[in-house]
Amino acid sequence: MKREYFSSFKHDRRTAESRQGSCIALVDARFLIWLAQQNAQGAAGESVNRQGLMGLLTQAMAHTGLDVDLRRVYWYTDRADGGVLDDQIVRWVQSHDVDGGASMLRALGQDLTQLARQQACDHVLIATDDERFISDIDAAQLCGVSVHVLADESARNMPQLMRNDPGWGRVLAQADRRVVVPAQQLSEMLQGKLPTAQQDPAENLEEVRPIITEVITAWWVEEPEDLREDLRDALQVSRGVPQEVDRQLLLRMRQRLTRALSLNEKKLLREILRSVVMGPAPTEEAVLPADAIA
User: Which of 38, 81, 133, 219 could make a disulfide contact with 183, Cβ separation 3.0–4.6 Å?
Assistant: First the structure.
């Protein structure tokens, strides 16, 4: 039976795959600033720097056991911060002082509903403490999406948090996982004090490039010609990699390196995949050792 690369992801929720996949983050800017001000020295003010946001969120999810590909952040705000950043979309909402957060709740809820109904991603990370959002989270989970909620260190003691802030406690309790980011680290990121990419300083993409190329080329040789043509067609009309293909290659790289790829390594993998697929199709000899060919 021919596999289908281009349908929405199929919910084969095997244990090995249940904490991997693609992720979209929905961030209430007002809440994130408040969260950064909790127990942090030199807390962030109302002006923020979002340069390191995706890296920080990716790192926090990895520490929670979520080896996911964070593809986009939606930033809900009533204030311009001057930032025009790749993979971050600003959603303008009314000031909380004007409508009590109703427009933010409506915008964020509509986006979560669309993501869940369209099965556009495997995971959604939400940064909000609005208890009115619980029903939207529940509906998305019933569609098969894993919904995680960002929190500070107080989430490590849920009984106490439920006593101190029962509304937020109920939001956190509804989440599949609570993604904890230290308030101090979040504050430093919003002030532009953290690197724009949360990665190991020793990371050298040129060292891993040939390994990624070898894994992708070997996989490409194994693919039937009809599926190769399907993938070429898909990449010609979209910059994104089909989720089924992405998942397969990330799993192969994890097995090869015995670790998950970093954010920058994942981007490199997709660049190399596009180069291999859209270039001349490799032959079997291209991935065989020289002595085997002889």
Answer: 38
